[in-house]
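Follow-up to my earlier ticket, as requested here are the two runs.
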Amino acid sequence: MKLAKVLGTVVATQKDAKLEGLRFLMLGLWGPDNKPAGGSIVAVDAVGAGVGEMVLFASGSSARQTASTDKKPVDAVIMAIVDSWEIEGDEKYRKGEAEA
């Protein structure tokens, strides 16, 4: 799993039939220090994430392990919305708190 921030939505009206009904979000890769890590990826949203939220996503064959992505041509899926994280007792992020 990797950490990311939801940057926005991606709309694709023409797509493979197996992708019908899936929602796509643009993610910015994020570091453990709560700062952008560089890079981005488009992922299927399996949990109802919103723009600005921190999420965990899986890529590769693991992306096809959720109920909504099983046997679908998907390479990245959001499977969790992050509430908080800490490193060595130092809280780096808590959902809903203003960013520094």
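Run two:
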Amino acid sequence: MSSITSLLRHAWLLLVCTHVSWAAENAPLTNVPYKTGDTLSSYEQKRCLLDVYLPKGERGEDKGFATLVWFHGGGLTGGNKDADGTKKVALGLAQSGVAVVVPNYRLSPQAKYPAYIEDATAAVAWTLQNIAQHGGDTKRVFVGGHSAGGYLTLMVGMDAHYLAAFGLKPQNLAGLIPVSGQVMTHYTVRQERGIAKFSVTADEAAPVRYADVKNLPPMLVLCADKDMPARAEENIYLAALMKGAGNKRVTVQVIADRNHGSVGHNIANEGDPARAAILKFMEGEQ
């Protein structure tokens, strides 16, 4: 074997070993129950689990890193924390130095409003109560999600009664990061109630109803320039209403050359503008 071939082989083995070492060191804590008790249904026991992706080298160390609770999309009727795209987003952000908590939650039609919001809130409460023992800073817990996950983010962080059930307030959150979330009453909630999908509805199940609530957490609103019909406009409208009502700590960013799916999935990629905005927002809100 030539010296050049030997060097190339050594470099390749080093790269593989480094990747395996990183993966082993930073393998997520998987299927952690965030709801417990004898009254849970079998469906709750199955779905109310979360994974914790810790930053590189942080496991078990008190480093005070920020944490993002990230809710998957799927229209409140589908989706899973174990989906390849969701896992890539979590791993990518963890490599950038933040912890990512990825919960599952109950889905419609097996569960109805507000079950999925209550599950999302329970996962956020679990994170606030437990992330410190893994090295996270409880004052730097952010909540975000894509599509249906963005809707859940907004409802948990804007309708205070959900967190109040756990003795918490929206002010306990460092910030909200909805990505292409629905700000009117979610169309799945409308369908559960027999209301047409595109009927204009903004009742207690609509984040926009809480735009004038004072002292909401800082918010980074992301959407796509080629988003699904009316979605980008809804997000821009929410931010405008909040600012008009005196909530100045809200920023909206329309990501260029993205559609409803790619604006969330591409967060996994280094250099993605939505990813960069998220990390900058999390770094700035301390």
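The only thing I checked on run two: Residues 11-24, 58-62 have pLDDT under 50 and may be disordered. Let me know what else you need.
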